[in-house]
Write a structure and sequence with these properties.
By secondary structure, the chain is α/β, with parallel strands linked by helices. The protein has eleven helices and seven strands. It has a five-stranded parallel sheet with strand order 2-3-1-4-5, with helices on both faces. Strands 6-7 form a two-stranded antiparallel ribbon. It is globular.
Length: about 260
Amino acid sequence: MRTRPRVYWLMSLARSGSSVTAYAAASPWRWPVADEIMGPWDRTGEPYRYPNMQAELVELFKRDGHLLTERVVDLANRVLTQIADGREAIISKWPHLRPSPEDFRGAFPEDRFVYLIRNPLHRLNSLHRRGWTGSFGPNQDLLRYRQFAQWWLEQPGRLAYDQLKDDPRGFFAALFGAWGIPCDARDIDTATSYARQNYHASSLERSDRPAGGVLSETEFALPREAFDLYLSDPTITQLMRSMGWSLDPADYGAAAPSAQGRR
């Protein structure tokens, strides 16, 4: 078996900027990206062309209750090694909630992890705009986001997608630093240039950048109940205040602010 590469994990929730972050971060060294290799998709075909055992990993992870069992970890390491194809390192993008940070560190103790979060209402709006509402329950995905936010706050390596938009060079410098990747100004320039020139609509799916920048922050589709639910949750409002994210529903497309939004 080939020597296992160094693996740098990017943990997030879906629609949080993890795709452009992962592929941009890999670009200075032309490292491969292991894009959601544990599912729920078979990515052995185009455009990923992962090894056949990636499909086996998806099924095994599902059968083992989405737990990082010994056999899941062993197969994951073999898939990562094959995707790396002799290169020294690989970026593994994981936009799912489970397993926990402790479970991941126990399973992959030699790896570095960075957790990426996004303004919850921009993220939720992106899900609504794309019609992905079937992926969450009647609580507008609040419980899933709140759990991730609590984990995010506990991590030594954590970033926000907003930082990528506001200060891309600082964002990638912080990302590489948290991963422990030696880099110079040219590496940061390469990653920044990739993020500026490539618009990832979803995962490896790329398209032209919308004229307004990020559609999910300029065209809104959130129902009123979503604002009221999120902006009445103390954990969410505390996080949003600490990050400088607006609590005014009018900034997210609502016709009129609610009582919670005016606090």
